[in-house]
Amino acid sequence: MESLILLIGATLRIATPILFGALGETVIERAGILNLGIEGTLLLSSFIGFVTAQAADSLWIGLAAAILTGIILNLLMGFLVVTLGLNQHVCGLGITLFATGFALFAFRLIYGGVSTPPALDESFQPLNAFTGTAFAPLFSQHWLTYVSLLFVPLLSWLLFRTSFGLRLRSVGEAPDAADTAGINVYRMRYTALIIGGALMGLGGAFLSLAQLGAFTHGIINGRGWVAIAIVIFGNWKPWRVLAGALLFSGVQALQLRLQAEGVPLPYELLLALPYLLTIVAIAIVGRNASYPAALLKPYRREG
Amino acid sequence: MSFKIERVPAPVWMRPLFIVLAVFITFLLVSTLVLAAGASPITAFYELLIDPLTRTGARADILMLATPILFTGIAVAIAFVAGYYNVGAEGQLYAGAILAAWVGVQAEGMQPYVAIPLMLAAGFLAGMVWALVPALLKAYLSVDEVVTTLLLNSVMLFFVSALLNGPWRDPVSNWPQSPTIATSAQFPVIIPRSRVHFGAIMAVIIALATWWMLSRTRFGLELRAIGKNKDAAKFLGIPVKRRLIAAALISGGIAGLAGVSEVGGIHYYLIGTLSPGFGYTGIIVATLGALTIPGVFISALFLSLINRGSISASRELDVPVYLSDVIQAVLLLVTLATLLLTQYRIRRER
Amino acid sequence: MPVIELRGITKRFGSLVANDHVDFDVETGEIHALLGENGAGKSTLMKILYGLYQPDGGEILINGSPVHLKSPADAIANGIGFVSQHFSLVPTFTVSENVLLGHEGGFLIDKAAMKQRVTAMADSLGMNLDPDAVVGKLAVGQQQRVEILKALYRKCRVLIMDEPTAVLTPQDTEKLFETLRHLQAQGMSVIIITHKLNEVLAVSQRVTVLRLGKVVGRTATADTTQTGLAEMMVGRKTVTVVRNSEHKVGDLAKLDVRDLHMTDKRGGLLLRGLSLSARGGEIVGIAGVAGNGQSELVSVLTGMAVPQSGSVLVNVQPMPFGQPKALAKLKIARIPEDRLRGIIGDLSVADNLMLEQSDQFTSFGHLKNRQIRENAEKLIRDFQIKASPNDPARTLSGGNIQKIILARSLAQDPEVIIASQPTRGLDVGATEYVHQKLIEQKQRGAAVLLISEDLDEILVLSDRILVIYEGRIAGEFAAENADIQAIGALMTGANLSPEAGLAGA
Q1: Is residue A277 part of a domain?
Q2: What is the pTM of this model?
Q3: Which residues in chain A have their CB less than 8 angstroms from residue C104's CB?
């Protein structure tokens, strides 16, 4: 029982950045854009958040900077694929490569060739509730974790119960029909990118400002790609995306637990396990995945 | 009188001009980073673009650096031409490297002309195997290949690390690196007093073969047809699924050769940092080369020039060596945007 | 004062002048027909009025005051509604979501109120529509009703309908006209874009005729006749293809389709025991409302889909399913429904002319470039394709693209020709050319299966007419005694006894 509670607690912690990323990607893909820039966006917002928090000596300013970074990179993505109508695959990867290169460049510039990762003097601390009870490990989460969970019903409501969501989805399903209905397809797609970018920024910030309180090159380590897989697994629905994120993180938490207990397997193979299971999961849902019909398609009004 | 933008393709001879323009804009943008690093952009760009060309040793280094990204660039180009977004060249490269290192170690006592082809074949095979699952999932279950190949890159890195920290940890030094391959399996150096090795010749051969395949064979024509219009290709009787799988496997195999070339020609053993992202650079190389083999060839050399230049720039000017990563990514995005201009022409009308 | 007035509208696409100083006006409460051939500039003019295109010259007045319509949103705000030929619906949304989209009237969506309003509106026009139905699964006629509701919901005063009857049965057409008269009675104006003369006469009060981008006539409908309109529209005596019966129809069925059954992913029936046959030397036309199994039949016959059961014999040999390549060997020529799925636009004309028969142009996998070029030059000459072998196919006009498809398949002297919507979207010249080629082929002795949503085309070309309804053949007519009312009735499933499905076999 106690170890189960620990496991669930760890799952929620591990799920947080992935959930932020996957929810952000969901909003963006619902508007018809596949943003492969997510991996780099998570990394750079994590880094900028960290550097700013250190420089300004304020976690809140760092958090704001991370969100801003996420938004700016997504606006750049929007310029390339919405305004210019370029290939979404290549531009997304280009943004990831750019953001990664830039983060490494700036890191070296600021910190030189340090061997231990720089850390914050003070980072966001977990909230402690039910201390002394058996449930304490479950609820000793960072407030950002609760925020990420709150976004699930919020986005579900926004996408499926409001006119804004109806319009956003129409732009990702049938942009020409949306246009004829008087919806500005470009503006709607940019709006989705801004929302998604802010969520990605939160995801990056969670790692450097809360969970680790430090920054390393490998801080994202493929979480962005996992988030994209989870969006497919979640069939572009926030609640199912949450399920996907928890599933991945649950396996991740479990393998950490197994590592700690000294299972006679190389720990790297355990680390690879959640990634492999993610591939299996999207292969299972693959055929029935209902991709937004206009995903990857730039919108151009004729004439 | 007004200006009007029309969708008229610019003449082909103007394309190179747009590339030059893209390079110019890229360097203008990157200047800000150079300034932030406290260096003069002019000096930095001299170090990046000109200085390596003035010295024999550096010129040879460019060829050495171009070898792996020529392989991965070709690998990515073949897949992209067929509309199959194999972004898993990084993982396939390591797959090739692992098997090549294993064969290389077993090659003790073999003649080089046996050992080296054996390594190449093993690496090609391993790259194909690593590319197989995403290709099958794409063809038969419509699972997005981008996601699966990216995830498999992560898996491969864990796998390499498990190998090097486990069964393959060097028994002598205890470093996480594989045992050294047999001398006979080590690629001969082809330019004296340099590190340019037989892999460069292989890369050129593969480039020529690929160029022939894409432009002169029915297989190549069918891949291009599939990449441009999958439905029509099927209608015209092209076995789309089988061709896609073939393209994915060839792509994976060639990416695997990049790994063989790094193991056999540079390191002589497998290490976790064998590739600083050659697989991803391959995407840039292929895209900058407009998915044509001559284009891939030129862009691989150009990116290697920048890579070599960034090493001297970092030494001379204390600009972080990652500058070249930033330049490459910015160049990719700017080139894509600039090439868009070749689709339009501004006309003046009254 | 006219509710809409267009003055001197000019629109150019590159060197093509689509609208050349067009004047056009609509009165309150009238049904105004905008008549012209394909390519005359009707749709362009209406897209300008709806803010989808910006004119290069001229002005638009609404209720007498000039307006600048930058986008459909502006047009909607000015009370203009547009029902396009290709519906602007989100297929995955429900009827009420589609009606509401863009005009939700608040941030929160009250689903119950929304449904109620849509139902009330539909009822007031005598439409029977489930507000919760997913639009992508509705029949074409119903989708069109959703479009009309959308316009109405936006408080539209002027409704533009682009070729609204192109995909409807005669009965559905009559129903649509009733709806339009109903709207007119409520004081709305309707602009109906068409090239069908009988519709102009049946429903409109006034008519404006466009030819090659210019207004060539404007008159009250009561003052004109079908012949008068035709002369204005075409500018010369209309040419009708004469069915030539001076050749003999073979006894043997070259194409014999037996008892095809096909279901979709969810188990819905697409083909329900469809059987038909076509002999050498005849054109067999398939008439029917879109969505009754035509696309699936074509998919099976062109090697793109595999039915659950049934068989197809070509010259008594069984045709393998789902293998496009095998069809060339059986000498089946295919003209696809969507011609852009028949060619690869980014490849050259020469490549497109050889890909279907690539075996002939390859030795050991290597392309025989000289033969490929010679083949292209020959076909370009023989079929008068306006292109050179190295041009990317996408730069060609629709007519020339269709000629590529005809050239490469007809040059093989086919035994069977599957022609699906062969003239959709083509101009008159190209349409005539395609019709001529099909007739030549039938005279040569090929069996031609013609599937078209254009009933006129079927009537003009076919020797026998089969009516398809809900995945099977509901009836057969010889060309001589084809009765359009009876065909229409069968297209909608009227008079269909359970055994009638085999009437054509």
Answers
A1: yes
A2: 0.88
A3: 163, 166
